[in-house]
From TrEMBL:
<dbReference type="InterPro" id="IPR036291">
    <property type="entry name" value="NAD(P)-bd_dom_sf"/>
</dbReference>
<protein>
    <recommendedName>
        <fullName>precorrin-2 dehydrogenase</fullName>
        <ecNumber>1.3.1.76</ecNumber>
    </recommendedName>
</protein>
<dbReference type="GO" id="GO:0043115">
    <property type="term" value="F:precorrin-2 dehydrogenase activity"/>
</dbReference>
<dbReference type="GO" id="GO:0019354">
    <property type="term" value="P:siroheme biosynthetic process"/>
</dbReference>
<dbReference type="GO" id="GO:0004325">
    <property type="term" value="F:ferrochelatase activity"/>
</dbReference>
<dbReference type="Pfam" id="PF14824">
    <property type="entry name" value="Sirohm_synth_M"/>
</dbReference>
<feature type="domain" description="Siroheme synthase central">
    <location>
        <begin position="115"/>
        <end position="141"/>
    </location>
</feature>
<dbReference type="Pfam" id="PF13241">
    <property type="entry name" value="NAD_binding_7"/>
</dbReference>
<dbReference type="InterPro" id="IPR028281">
    <property type="entry name" value="Sirohaem_synthase_central"/>
</dbReference>
<keyword id="KW-0520">NAD</keyword>
<dbReference type="InterPro" id="IPR028161">
    <property type="entry name" value="Met8-like"/>
</dbReference>
<dbReference type="InterPro" id="IPR042518">
    <property type="entry name" value="SirC_C"/>
</dbReference>
<comment type="pathway">
    <text>Porphyrin-containing compound metabolism; siroheme biosynthesis; sirohydrochlorin from precorrin-2: step 1/1.</text>
</comment>
<keyword id="KW-0560">Oxidoreductase</keyword>
<keyword id="KW-0627">Porphyrin biosynthesis</keyword>
<dbReference type="InterPro" id="IPR006367">
    <property type="entry name" value="Sirohaem_synthase_N"/>
</dbReference>
Amino acid sequence: MYSALLNLEGKMVTVVGGGEVAFRKVSSFIEEDCEIHVIAPSFIEEFKTLGHKVHRIYKCYEEGDCAGSFIVVAATDDYEVNKQIGQFCKRGHILCNVVDNKPLSSFIVPSTLKRGDLTISISTGGASPSLAAKIRRELEDKYDAHYGEYIARLGRIRNCVLEKVTDEVEKKRILKHIITLEPQELEAYEKSHFND
Ligand SMILES: C[C@@]1(CC(=O)O)c2cc3[nH]c(cc4nc(cc5[nH]c(cc(n2)[C@H]1CCC(=O)O)[C@@](C)(CC(=O)O)[C@@H]5CCC(=O)O)C(CC(=O)O)=C4CCC(=O)O)c(CCC(=O)O)c3CC(=O)O
Ligand SMILES: NC(=O)C1=CN([C@@H]2O[C@H](COP(=O)(O)OP(=O)(O)OC[C@H]3O[C@@H](n4cnc5c(N)ncnc54)[C@H](O)[C@@H]3O)[C@@H](O)[C@H]2O)C=CC1
C-alpha cells in the first residue's frame, strides 16, 4: 500500500458511527483544518470532549449522506451498513476507510506519532494493529516532546540555507551536517550562523 500525508484544508470529512472506533478516527482529524461530520443514532460520552468543531448528526446512515465528502470513515458495528458506505464511496471515487473491511477500503489508517512537523506512521498492513500501536508507544519515548522544537529549528535553518547558499555542494554538506548535531549544538549553530 502507498503511504502519503493528505492536505485536508477546507475539505469535508464524514465519519459514520458513534462508538469507540469512530471516536478514535474522529480524534485523528481534530488537528486538521477540515469540516468534520459524524453520523450515528447515538454517541459515546467522549464525543462531548471534542467541542464544536465536530458536527454530530443524530440519525442512521442513509444512501447519499457521504456525498460531497473528500474522506469518509465507515465505523458502525453493522458490517452491511459499513459495506454500503464503502460501495457508495467506491462508485463516487471518495476516499474511504471501512473499519471492518480492508478489501473495500481505499486507505487504512496507520498508528501515528506526531512531534510538530515530524510524523512517524507505523503500519502492519492490517496484520496486527496492536503491534503497530506497540511500536508507536516505543517510539514515543525515543522521539519525546522536545522533538517538536528540534524539527522546527531544522526547518528554519534549512529554509535559510536554501535561500542564502548558492553552491549546491556546500548546500548539501550543510544540510547533512546539521542533522548530526545534538539539539543544543543545533541551537548554538542557528544563533551563530543565521541570526541576523
Ligand atoms: C486494517 C485497519 C483498518 C483501519 O481501521 O484503518 C484495522 C482493522 C481492524 N482493527 C481491528 C482491531 C483493533 N484495532 C486496534 C487499534 C488500531 N487499529 C488501527 C488501524 C487499523 N485497524 C487498520 C490497519 C492498521 C495496520 O495494521 O497498520 C490503528 C493503528 C489506527 C486507528 O484506528 O486510528 C489503531 C491503533 C492506534 C494507536 O493506538 O496508535 C486495536 C487495539 C486497540 O483498540 O487498542 C484492535 C484490537 C486488537 C487487535 O485486533 O489487534 C480489527 C478487528 C475488529 C474485531 O474485533 O472485529 C480490524 C478489522 C479487521 O482486521 O478486519
Ligand atoms: N479498524 C479498527 O481499528 C477497529 C475496528 N473494529 C470494528 O469497528 C466496529 C465498531 O466498533 P465500536 O466503535 O467499538 O462499536 P460500538 O458498538 O461502540 O459503536 C457502534 C456505533 O455504530 C453506530 N451505528 C450502528 N448502526 C448505524 C447506522 N446504521 N448508521 C449510523 N451509525 C450506526 C451505533 O450507534 C454506535 O454509535 C466493530 O464492529 C469492529 O468490527 C473494532 C476495533 C478496531
